[in-house]
Amino acid sequence: MSADLARVDPGQMPEALCRACVGPMRVDGASVSLAGGPGVRAAWCASDRTAARLAQAQYALGDGPCQSALDGAATVEAADLTRGPDAHRWPEFAAEAVSLGVGAVFSLPLGVDGTTVGTLDLYRDRPGALSESDLRIARWTRDAVTFAVTDLPPGHEAVGVVMARLGLSPEQALDRIREAAFAEGRTVGELAHEIVLRGSGFGPEPGEGHVCPAPHR
Asked: 3 φ, ψ to 5°?
């Protein structure tokens, strides 16, 4: 996967990364979400619309396998969201997932040296646990995604731009980018690349005068 991604244009990297996650495993979709602080989640990329809506549902509800994986810094497997323990553990998220035609979700925390920076989330249309082979591939993919995410300069640079222009903390800047991306129907990765490439959005352009900090929420 790393060799293929090395040939991808930086602007297309997030989406290519998510699509590459799906092929090696028997899953139907994948997304990568970033955690900028307690309660702050952003869908960095998604392989398809369903994966994107699942990610949005989890940070909108503040509950689900993704949140549990972040809280426990451990892989969470929700093999059957249609009934049983998994459906009862996250009732609101399970209902939303099933309404999207999803039967199972698997979340793996991303991070190094004990620091969790986000999650790799996989879904299946039908209920069913990952096989040992798929779980090994998922863990390898998780490590590759962790490296790719922490090595993607547009995301970090975009947060820096918004911080400087609006006087926000890193968590608040990431939250503001997430909200703008959601409103525009794009992923955070796409918007971050545009902010860095064009230097536009989120307040006056450099040289246009002082930027008054936005009120902290």
From this structure: -65, -40
User: Strands, DSSP E only, in the chain?
Assistant: 29-37, 40-46, 76-78, 104-112, 115-124
The residues, any chain, with a CB within 8 Å of residue 158's CB and separated by 6 or more, are 177, 191, 192, 193, 195, 196
Measure the CA–CA gap between 134 and 22, rounded to whole angstroms: 11
Average pLDDT, the chain: 77
Q: Which amino acid is at 57?
A: A
Give the pLDDT band of residue 9 (cuts 50, 70, 90). low
Contact (Cβ atoms closer than 8 angstroms) between residue 68 and residue 84: no
- Residues with Cβ < 8 Å from 72, sequence gap 6 or more? 109
Nearest C-alpha neighbor of 110 from the set 179, 194, 22, 42: 42
Per residue in 96-134, pLDDT (tens digit) is 999 999 999 999 998 876 678 889 999 999 999 999 988
Cα–Cα distance measured from residue 38 to residue 129, given in angstroms and rounded to the nearest whole number: 29
Q: Hey, what are 145's tokens?
A: 């995604």
- Classified as helix, coil or strand, 92 is helix
Which of 119, 45, 20 shows the shortest CA–CA distance to 77?
119
| Short-list 21, 39, 38, CA closest to 29 | 21
